[in-house]
Amino acid sequence: MTHSRSVRPFYRPMRPRRRDEQHRAATPLELFFDLCFVVAVAQAASSLHHDVAEGHLAHALPSYLMVFFAIWWSWMNFTWFASAYDTDDDVYRITTLVQITGALILAAGVPRAFTDGDFSVITYGYVVMRLAAVAQWIRAAAGDPAHRAAARRYAVGVTVVQLGWLLRLALPDGWGVAAFVLLALADLLVPAVAERPGMTPWHPGHIGERYGLFTLIVLGEAVLAISVAIQTGLDAGDHGLWALAAAGTLIVFALWWLYFDRPVEAPDRLPYSLIWGYGHYLIFGAIAAVGAGLPVAVDHERHLAHVSATTAAYAVAVPIAVYLLTVWVLLVRRQQHGAVVVAYPVVAGLALLVPLGPAPVQVLALLLVALVTLTVLLRGRDAGASATLTS
């Protein structure tokens, strides 16, 4: 006997998902989408590592920020759209695979963007992804009359900005960064304008899970980067890297713990949901930058980096400080209180002083472990106090 409801159709009208849907979880297609983005994140982190290790700091930072914006913004827009309109029909899957193809093109252009300042391949991949997203929004406008105005605004806004990205390639070299900033701001404004007629029905819990999964992917890239750097050193006969390997591992473990200490869920009000969603650019970018900075520290330990010990330490300390401050703003201040709220910015400030002293990576690891310990102890005390009040 055939059950027609179990057969995935080639096409179905794109109806909105319910915001209060129970047990809303990431789909295999979303997980595959994230997996393909690992390539782009790895390329960005690896290029940042090599630029910093070679002492090209003035070139490394703007290149990394621009490349990572393209990666993060493409991922984020798919994630929020899928949370609201994932129909899982064949047309939806094919369109998403086109977006993934754009991500792979984007990843292929990352090394050229760092070495030659040539963003043409990245732009082509980015535009492929975003125009495929326009097709999705057109489907949403047709299938969801209640949010048709928002879907149309998305489709028009994204299309106009993509034309701007293509025109940017024809500008003289000196205008590239200014045009990038202007177009990035235009991209950021599209959701703020489009959602004003009425928020599309994305699911706060599902968005929280998706952001958590991408955090894990970026953390995994950091683990891989430090592992490869240590392995390379050991293969070359340098066995004095164990302390650095242990410190790097503790740093990544602590970053994971601090993000996932409490359940992660997106706010359901428009202004703060935008701040929360956009703010994760700094969280994701900082974690990937830690994954680039730790190999720089390994290179310096092996006398391969063309930077000072202080610069190599700041390659780890600065992204850690950015991460702590952003987690503090987006997650900690909303969910916790008391000493923990004060501890995050204090540790971030101390992290920026650590490179001026000895064994900076090890000291950074100890600072983060201390912050995790404080978080756990105070959470246990709060839980005990709550249990006492309710008994």
From TrEMBL:
Annotated TM spans: 63-82, 94-115, 121-142, 154-171, 177-194, 214-234, 240-260, 272-292, 312-331, 338-355, 361-378
The UniProt record lists the keyword Transmembrane helix: yes
Entry-linked InterPro entries: Low_temperature_requirement_A (IPR010640)
Keywords: Membrane, Transmembrane, Transmembrane helix
Family matches, as PANTHER family: BLL5714 PROTEIN
Name of the featured protein: Low temperature requirement protein LtrA
